[in-house]
C-alpha cells in the first residue's frame, strides 16, 4: 500500500502574464504536476512538480525581496488577491 502525503499549496509572489500585476500565486501540487494560479485574475498555468520546486519558488521570492528595495510596494503583497502594478 502506497501512502500519499498531503502537500499544502505554496503561496508565492510573481508577476502574472495574463493581468500584468504583481500578485500572490498559489501552486497546488497534484501528482507529478502542479497548478500555479494568480489569486487576482485566476490565470492558471500547469507545471511539472519536481523535488526542487519549493527551492525554485524561494529563489524567485529572494529576487522579489531584492526588488523591494527599489519598489517597496512589493512588501504589501501578503494575502491572496493582493496585487500591484509596477510598470
Topology:
Layout: E1 10-15, E2 22-30, E3 33-38, E4 44-48, H1 53-67, E5 83-84
Short description:
The chain contains one helix and five strands.
Verbal overview:
With 87 residues, this protein is of the alpha+beta class. It has one domain (12-84). 17% of the residues lie in helices and 32% in strands. The chain has one helix at 53-67; strands at residues 10-15, 22-30, 33-38, 44-48, 83-84. Strands 1, 2, 3, 4 and 5 form a five-stranded antiparallel β-sheet that branches. It is globular and about 40 Å long. The termini are far apart.
Structural class: alpha+beta
SS summary, helix count: 1
The radius of gyration over CA amounts to: 14 Å
Strand content: 25-35%
* Low-pLDDT stretches: none
Helix content: 10-25%
> Overall mean pLDDT score?
88
What is the domain total for the residues? 1
Q: Based on CA inertia axes, which overall geometry fits?
A: globular
What sequence of helices (H) and strands (E) makes up the elements? EEEEHE
Q: Report on the biggest sheet.
A: 5 strands, antiparallel
| Quaternary organisation of the protein chains | single chain
> What is the tally of beta strands?
5
* Through-space gap between termini: 52 Å
